[in-house]
Amino acid sequence: MTYDIAIIGAGPAGLSAALNSKIRNKSVILFGKDSEKLVKTKKISNYLGFSDVTGADLNQAFKDSLKDFEIKRDTRKVKTIYAMGSYFAIEIENESQMVEARAVIMASGIELKKDLANEEKFFAKGVNYCATCDSALYRGKKVVVIGYNDESVAEANFTSEIVGSLVFVNMTGKEVSLNEGIDLIEGEIPLGFEGTDRAEKLIFKSGKEILADGFFIEKDSSKAERLVPGIKMEDNHIFTNKDTSTSIKGLFAAGDITGKPYQIMKAVGEGQVAALKAASYLASKN
């Protein structure tokens, strides 16, 4: 099935885009999990219409707005989005067949953590961002998972059943439950990678080093330029025109990924605009 609109990210911008796309009678697929940043916010005092609401309650109110609409949800990680001219091909984890959409709205938020040294240099050359997607490439080999979120623990456990050996670098700030046989590193700060043609070792601030065949960095979101090859960026954000259109025809962006201020009301408003513009774009193609 080819969807009218694929939305990447299920935070305030993505949920707003999904609602407004569906109201305009478009078929919609929404990728992503609940915004952890929003859900964990204890009090929001500046959202119009709500007084000192918790992030969890506001997020639930957003989701309740969608419950009467037929919107396909998919919580799997999006690997890459390819612009194919008249449509977009979306590669997702653990799926051999691409998901197709006539338009895309990027609402995946922004990753504020700085890259590790040589992370970009060795991207797809030993450094990857989805263990469940690419673990088969390292069957029988040694890999390192650097985990910054809760999902990274599940990714490490899954990957350990495929690869030869696995080291988990715990950056979650929490105790983790790992499969037997996984080596755990805690209290170390990873600085970057070294290698010749590909990443061969991970270097820590303490001077500790780990040699491995592959490295997976598991964070809440991937950089937009890695998700969408060729997208125009500006100051680490997707460049957008005032109408949320981007440098790629048919691809729109909303929320934190478009730049400051990182505010919920801005994200919701941009999500609505992106949906309206995506619907107009599709109408112009008919």
TrEMBL record:
Pfam families: Pyr_redox_2
Keywords on record: Flavoprotein, Oxidoreductase
FAD/NAD(P)-binding domain span: 3-147, 178-271
Keyword Oxidoreductase: yes
Keyword Flavoprotein: yes
PANTHER family: THIOREDOXIN REDUCTASE 1-RELATED-RELATED (PTHR48105)
Protein name as catalogued: NAD(P)/FAD-dependent oxidoreductase
